[in-house]
Amino acid sequence: MDQTLFPTPHGVDADDPILRLPKVSLHDHLDGGLRPATIVELASEAGHTLPADDPADLAAWFSASANSGDLTRYLETFENTIAVMQTAPALTRVAREWVLDQVADGVFYAEARWAPEQHLRADLDMDAAVIAVQAGLDEGEAIAAEAGRVIRTGQILTGMRHANNSLAVAELAIRHRDTGVVGFDIAGGEAGNPPAAHLQAFDFLHRECFPVTIHAGEAAGVESILEAVQVCGAQRIGHGVRIVEDMDVVDGNGTLGRLAAWILDHQVPLELCPSSNLQTGAAGSIADHPITGLKDLGFAVTVNPDNRLMSATSVTREMRLLVDEAGWDQSDLEWATVNALGCAFIPLDARERFIDEILIPGFERITL
């Protein structure tokens, strides 16, 4: 593969067989996945001062800040990515490179999650921002196709849960549903900003038969997940790692609370992001991360990078960590990938075709 177009993901051995497995990425923030060199170039154009001007030094700063345990420092990392994503050309470039990085990671379906309301500091409105991102996604897919690689992408538009724009973002998503937008989300500070505060947006989207995922169960606990699923009607849960607080299970034996049993019985997908959860304190180590116990109990777990830049990760790296530190095998990785594709925000016929033509054959060709 052309390393100039499709660079091997950070922290991944180019010969790792996991890299060649077909993958799905559902929880993957656009503003958390920029290339450091791109940030440096865009910051120069925008007149934005960075904490470091060398790409390698900047990558190290992002990693150190995200792993500091200091929430203020962690949030500062996003200020430096969002600051350089305020023009149409910048958004298009970032989205294009985001697609190429997915291809390099072995991903054949990916959803780009981002908040249009955070990209209006220059002369863009939210519609123009969505169009610019879609142009980049389309360009990335076309470049991949020319290289003989298959990838399909979609946008998930995110409302900020501490703001009052969620209905406007929901209406924006509906305006662009036939030109690349596939879902809606709310994100931001979870504690003190419950999903039900955005019920007007969710009710509107449900009437429009439009897919919804909600960040819940990361910084806040079971009540946040309950509201997301039972009050706001989310089809998927972003993170959801703290569902374990509603169960008493040791070595596969024990009891599930009402909500945990509902999530399991109805196979509500959990968009789990192991490395990111360690950074935010939602888990202590990969070996002890709840994703493995949830998998063993039959929950619909999926494996995601969350923020590729801040966590210096990729789907391949997350899978490698689970294999090396949590005892996962190839069948576990396939199970999680089937779960992810099964709940992707694309039509059923596309999901079935991907399973038959890409996912199953791809796993059959590789032996870990």
From TrEMBL:
UniProt EC number: 3.5.4.4
Record key words, sorted: Hydrolase, Metal-binding, Zinc
Names of the cofactor(s): Zn(2+)
SUPFAM superfamilies found in the cross-reference section: Metallo-dependent hydrolases
Domain of life (superkingdom): Bacteria
Domain called Adenosine deaminase: residue spans: 22-358
Gene3D superfamilies named in the record: Metal-dependent hydrolases
Transmembrane segments: none
Enzyme type, top EC level: hydrolase
Family: Belongs to the metallo-dependent hydrolases superfamily. Adenosine and AMP deaminases family.
The organism's taxonomic lineage, starting at the top: Bacteria, Bacillati, Actinomycetota, Actinomycetes, Micrococcales
InterPro entries: A_deaminase_dom, Ado/ade_deaminase, Metal_Hydrolase
Protein name according to UniProt: adenosine deaminase
